Every structure is written in C-alpha cells, then in structure tokens.
C-alpha cells in the first residue's frame, strides 16, 4: 500500500552545476548501454563510481547479456524497469529480477557473477549503479539481495509525486536498503504535469538527477530527458526543488562522499594500485568467493 505524506519544504534549493551527456558504449558480450556516470566524474560524485542506463526493444542490443565476470571493492545496484535478468554468482547466490525489481550485490573481497536476460524479445530497460565501499569494508564478505518491485517502499505526496525508495530514507519513509558508510539515497519519482517535488538533502552529500521520461526544471534550470544534472554543492542549500512541466519520471541519487583514493582497473575498485594488482592475482588464483 502506498502511503500519502506531506511534501518536504526546501527553503534554498541546489542549482544545476552542469548537465552531462551519456556516452553510448557496449559492455558484457555486446550489450548496448548509455554510460552516464563515467570514470572522470568519480571524484565529483563520490561515492558513486558509474551509472549505466540501458533500454531497447531490439533483442540484438541486449540478448548476449553479461557472462561471468569478477568484481571487488564496491557494490552494484541493478534496477530493472522492464524485462527479466537472471543473476548467478560464485558465492552461490542466484536470483531473477523482473519489472520494477532491484538486485543489490556487495562484491566485497571478490565475487564473479553473470547477468543474463531471460527474454528473447520485448523491451528491456533499467539502470546499473556502482556504489563504492569504504576502505574498511572493501574486503568484507560478498552479499546479495533480490528486491521484488512489491518490496520497494513507496509513498505519494500531496503535490502528486509518486516515489519509490530503493535506498536511504526520505519523507519519513525508509528504503529497501540502508548503508551506514556511504548513506546512499536512491529514489525513482514520477511527477504529473506541473507538479513539484521538494527533497531535503544533507549539504555535504553529492547528488544528481536523471530524467528518463519527460524533462524537469531544477531550481529554474532545465534538465532535458536522458541528461544527468549534477547538483551544486551549495553549503547554504537544504535540498533540491524539482518541477515537471509535463508528466515525467526520474531518478535521484545522493550519498556521503568517502573522500578516499580511488584506484580502478576494470571491475576492481580499490584505494591503491598495489591493491589492484593483488585483486588481479587473487582472481587468477581462484581466491574470490566460491
């Protein structure tokens, strides 16, 4: 059941620092994706490392999927808007995410997994977000959870916003997953035409907004569809004000920066190059979760 809450009031909203175009690319066994948060933005959007948006009704764009590959040192959050994807990993976890579901995997000290479509036609659309782990948690045991759409907390506001809380907490509603170190907030919001949504954010947290249906006005700045708006880190601002000139749907992501060194080599994200070399050696030697 969706509860109705009073919309938060933001007294000073964050503006749009800049708009980012995604980079069309392929990953896995040739899956076509739009890489929105790229490696050069990792420091600016710490603790987030990557955001991929994918969406196609052409099976050739996604059918090959993501065969087994390793990860170490961070978390992957796959949000499936439409379609079905099967997860299997070397720690023995297996699950199927379908329309509206989320797969949250903590790679920790190392895990190999595959993500393969369980459909041969139709639309497949969603996001994958990479969330960094604090240095103290990078070698933790791997963890995995499937979250069906019906288990994602949701609420509506008096102004008409329909909100799903994947992670974090807002408007008095706790999300499906909480993380103490990075304090991620991950929302999927639908706004009817001319409706507004105020969202309070801690001043020190990095944040961005990504509309994937329609377009938005964020503190008087226009954000077109499929463009990421990085929100300015204004120490005087207490949140963000969002208005939808037409019916729109968007994600909002925010988190507490770790302010730690980032060393990345493909699917391994650690703090030093020595740790990256160790991750590669451990993977080759079969020392990841099994």
UniProtKB/TrEMBL annotation:
Pfam families: Pirin, Pirin_C. Residues 186-288 form the Pirin C-terminal domain. Residues 1-29 are annotated as: Disordered. InterPro entries: Pirin, Pirin_C_dom, Pirin_N_dom, RmlC-like_jellyroll, RmlC_Cupin_sf. Residues 32-131 form the Pirin N-terminal domain. SUPFAM superfamilies: RmlC-like cupins. Belongs to the pirin family. This is Pirin family protein.
